Amino acid sequence: MSLFSGSLGPRDVLDVLLVAFLIYQGYLLVVGTRAVNVLRGILVFAGVWVMAQVLGLTTLSYLLGRASTVGLFALVVLFQPELRAALERVGRPRGRDLGASGAALQDLARAMERLAERKTGALIAIERRTPLGEYAATGVALDAKVSAPFLEALFARNAPLHDGGVIIQGSRVVAAGCLFPLQPADGTYRRYGTRHRAALGLSEVSDAVVLVVSEERGSMRIALAGRLGPDLNGTELREQLRALIYDRADLTGELPTPPLDASVEAAVGHPTQERGNA
Fold first, then answer.
1. Exposure of 206 by Cβ count < 10 A (0-12 exposed, 13-18 middle, 19+ buried)?
2. I need a surface site. Which of 73, 80, 94, 227 has the fewest CB within 10 A?
3. Could you give the CA distance from residue 164 to residue 135 in angstroms, rounded to a whole number?
4. Nearest-10 Cα torsion for 26, 32, 35, 38
């Protein structure tokens, strides 16, 4: 190889750049998740192992070597959701037509406002590039046009599908009463109720835009990329929906302005404790 023979050729430069690119992409997949802390732990473990070998600590090196073999399998089991989400992001189609119309988004925002005014809990996922068919299969299949009265009826108190999530593809409501994966109770938003944790859980494993209305506070919020945004009024909700869906911007999971992160939690008050199943 020319890299070790003293000369650096174009192929070697390409090789280094590709490796650097893969490392950077791997970093982007784990940044902001609990896997970051585990990665730090792995680096510390590897450092101790190397030092044990350099210092000739035979017994310690043997034990760490055995532990690393078992640890690899344990990590795969422990971080199966994160690995699945990472692989899904890698294989996510780049040119998929979202198909949502401006009229549908207006009806959706109008329904959210009315539900929030009445403090009626709601959970709505808007499909983007990641297919949500497996979650739609957990609910009742529908094929209805998005409209404010229809969405309000689905989430009406004591309605059969009130406690589940609704999935929207393009301008159609494809399923209601769906079960979404819950964010772990030990996560950043552990004080939130089931509905909010379901919104966060689905946004972690997909690129869906998940809307949630609080039953207790009557607030409207958006969950995206595993983060929960601030309370929104009707105008802000329409602007963010247009940016995320209609204008087809922000398809990489990056958050629009204002930023949707946990730093706004103190500014919007205490989290709600939703009891509805999602």
1. buried
2. 94
3. 11
4. 110
For the cut 50, the answer to whether the pLDDT of residue 269 exceeds it is: no
Q: CB–CB of 268/224 below 8 Å? A: no
Summarised one tens digit per residue, pLDDT across range 182-226 is: 887 655 666 788 899 999 989 888 889 999 999 888 899 999 988
Pairing of strands 209-213, 220-224: antiparallel
Residue with tokens 């995206």: 224
- Tell whether the torsion through CA atoms of 142, 145, 150 and 155 is positive or negative: positive
* Phi and psi, residue 40, nearest 5°: -60, -40
Return the closest-CA partner of residue 237 out of 117, 109, 135, 150: 109
| pTM score | 0.62
Task: Tally the C-alpha atoms within 13 A of residue 207's C-alpha that lie toward its C-beta.
Answer: 25
